[in-house]
Structures are given as C-alpha cells and as structure tokens.
Design goal:
Layout (H helix, E strand, L loop, with lengths): L1 E5 L5 H14 L4 E5 L7 E6 L3 E3 L5 E3 L2 H8 L5 E10 L5 H13 L12 E9 L6 H17 L5 E2 L6 E8 L2 E7 L22 H11 L6 E3 L6 H8 L6 E5 L2 H14 L5 E5 L12 E7 L12 H15 E9 L2 H10 L4 E9 L2 E8 L1
Parallel strand pairs: 7-8, 7-9, 11-12, 11-14, 12-13, 14-15
Antiparallel strand pairs: 1-3, 1-6, 2-3, 4-5, 6-10, 9-10, 15-17, 16-17
The structure holds S-adenosylmethionine.
S-adenosylmethionine binds next to helix 6 and strand 12.
Length: 362
C-alpha cells in the first residue's frame, strides 16, 4: 500500500523520520521517501499490509492510515495513493483531458463501492491556466463515469463517505483517498482560543525536534496561545515548561488551550515582557518561540528593537539552545550575533503562504 503524506514545506526530513519511527514501532516494514517527484511538503511511503489476531483469533487488517492519523505530530494529511503521473501538456483543455483519461484508467472501483457517497477535493500549486475547482470537477466526472458502469454513483459534496483528493503540483498529478478528512491534522482539537498569528502545530513539533531537548527546562518567552508548549507537554515532556506572554488576552487564551489539551498543570504561564526575561527566570536550559513578525501584530518598525532587547536578556539566562522562527531575517540575525549567540542550524519553513526562517542557536 502506498500513502502520500503531506506536511509543511521545509520539514519533510523531520516528518520522514517520524513516519519511519512510527512504522518501526508498530513492526511495519516499508520505504519512506521525502519530496517524491521533487514535490515539497510531500512524503511517499510504501508499506506492506499488516495483520493482527483479534480476541477470537480472527485475522484482522492493521489500519495503517488510522495509526498515522492518530499518532503523527508532524503530518497534515494521510492520503491513500491510487495513482500518479506527470502531465505532458499543461495547456488547460489538454491537461484536463489528460487528467480525465488518466483517472478513467485508474483502479477507482478498488477503493469505493458504488453505494458509497463520494466527493473530490482538488488542490493545485504552481503556474496553471486552470483552478483547483477545474481539477475537482474533471476528476469527479471521470470517477462518476467509471462507476456508472457498475451502478448509480452517489455524489455528496458536504458529507461524503469517501473523499478523493486530486492534486496537481507543477506538472505532477496525484490521486488518492484522503483518510484524514476535511480538517487537516495540524488543526488540533485543543485549540479553543484562536490566536490571530498562531503557529501550526506541525511546525511547533518540528521546532521541538530541532531543539534536541534533554529533559531540561524550557521557556517560550512570547508564547501567544501556547502552541509549542502545549504540544511539548502532550508529548509527555518531563522538564519544566514555562510560557510568558505580554498580552493578557492571549495569555488567558493559552491557559484555555492548555486546559482543553489536559496539560494545564504541566505549564507555568507568566504574564510578562520578554524584554525583561531575567526578571522572571534566573536560568533556563532551552528557549523556543514563534517571534512576532510585525505583519499580523503590532508595528513592523518596533521589531528590531524588540529582538535586540529580548536576545540581550536571553543571553543572561539561556544555558543550552534556542529555536526561533520569524520572517524578520535581518533583525534576528543582528540580535543573535550582537548578543554573543551562534547559529548552529538554519532552514526555511513554509507557514501560511510565507517561507519563515528557523534558527537553532547556542
Ligand atoms: C507570533 S505570536 C506567537 C504565537 C504562538 N506561537 C501561538 O501559536 O499562538 C507572538 C506573540 O508574542 C507576543 N509578544 C509581543 N511582544 C512581546 C513581549 N515583549 N513579551 C512577551 N510577549 C510578546 C504577542 O502578543 C504574540 O502573542
């Protein structure tokens, strides 16, 4: 069985590692490939079907898709792969005709009974003359026509039993069954307070991985709605976890989120100012934050001073490592450098249509 897994651009290597670890922990054998067809934000895994015996000794299939949906921290979607190809001509009429023919020749009937309702969700990335709606319509009619040979197909766009996902990324077409459903896995059920600039939970987990935590104390000095810390607590982290936030409204939201996640007792939340960090903490092993960019919150001109003051304070208390993300490359690099820190790792991560800079510092 093949699965196309989706995640944020720039963290495919970490997601691949996670998938390998999860498959290994379940005793499953398989290959995991990051960026198949050079497509960013995608991981392809081919896994042998697995079985177990139930209480009555009956052989049952181990549901790999459910297992990944339930346990992954870094993935956005788990899509059962049906077929994929390169589109030879991207001119609108020709591309859509090619997609229609390709889907008509794909083994759709292996994945859906005619009695089941279905919908197609289209997705597109790259330069195209057609829209994701065009893709969904074309694929929908090919599936309909194919199933018509077996009975009367049933389309239900709002509450389908089976969701097909049809993606075109540049010239690669991919068709699968979306086992995750319409809500991406990065939208966590604990998020009862929606911070206007919250971080995707998948990226928060990537930052946690990059920090290489060793059980020491950790602070998010501008924690917003608490995403990184809540995700860390949910992983069962045993070290001290501290969150600081300047605005009461967000701090209250972070507490509400932590309560919903069942980890309120694991995080110490402080109403405070990150530029006065040493007033709240004598020392801390790790620091991590999704720093304010000035795009969504506050004024951009205040960012360089804020970063400079914050990193000066951080240099007083940080023992081990820090992991930060921001769009403000110049401001953070200046603040890191002038306060005696060294960048030990840098990468770009896709977040909300932007590529943000992620730094691990010492
Ligand atoms: C990009 S948001 C963080 C979002 C957070 N990662 C989340 O997922 O909700 C940056 C946060 O920094 C807070 N902030 C800005 N200046 C601050 C300061 N001097 N001290 C503490 N927090 C500050 C903002 O109120 C905002 O909530």
């Amino acid at each position: 069985m093949k699965f196309m897994l989706t995640t944020s651009r720039g963290i495919e290597d970490l997601a691949k590692k996670e998938v390998e670890m999860l498959l290994g922990s379940a005793g499953l054998k398989g290959k995991v490939e990051e960026k198949p067809f050079d497509v960013e934000g995608r991981i392809l895994t081919e896994v042998e079907k697995a079985y177990y015996s139930d209480d009555k000794g009956k052989k049952r299939e181990f549901e790999i898709a459910s297992f990944l949906n339930e346990n992954s921290k870094l993935l956005h979607r788990v899509i059962l792969h049906i077929s994929s190809t390169k589109i030879s001509n991207l001119e609108k009429g020709k591309a859509l005709q090619e997609i229609y023919n390709f889907v008509l020749n794909s083994p759709i009937e292996k994945y859906i009974k005619v009695s089941e309702t279905f919908a197609v969700r289209g997705f597109r990335k790259g330069e195209h003359e057609f829209t994701s709606i065009d893709i969904a319509k074309t694929v929908g009619s090919a599936i309909y026509d194919k199933l018509s040979k077996l009975g009367t197909p049933r389309v239900n766009l709002d509450h389908p039993t089976v969701i097909f996902r049809a993606e075109i990324i540049n010239d690669v077409f991919f068709l699968g069954i979306d086992t995750t459903g319409d809500s991406s896995l990065h939208k966590r059920p604990w998020r009862v307070y929606d911070h206007p600039a919250h971080l995707k939970a998948s990226i928060a987990n990537a930052m946690i991985e990059l920090a290489g935590l060793d059980g020491g104390s950790i602070v998010d000095p501008m924690c917003g709605s608490g995403t990184i810390l809540i995700e860390l607590a949910l992983r069962g982290y045993e070290g001290r976890i501290i969150g600081i936030e300047k605005y009461k409204k967000h701090l209250k939201g972070a507490k509400m989120n932590a309560l919903a996640a069942g980890v309120i007792d694991r995080i110490k939340f402080i109403h405070g100012d990150a530029t006065k960090l040493s007033q709240y903490l004598e020392s801390v092993d790790f620091a991590t934050s999704n720093l304010p960019y000035g795009l969504k919150i506050g004024r951009k001109s205040t960012i360089p001073t804020l970063y400079m003051k914050f990193f000066a304070e951080l240099s007083e208390v940080l023992g081990k490592k820090g992991v930060f993300i921001t769009t403000e490359k110049n401001a953070i690099e200046k603040a890191i450098d002038e306060n005696g820190f060294k960048v030990i790792h840098h990468r770009l991560i896709g977040h909300g249509g932007l590529m943000v800079h992620c730094y691990v510092i010492k």
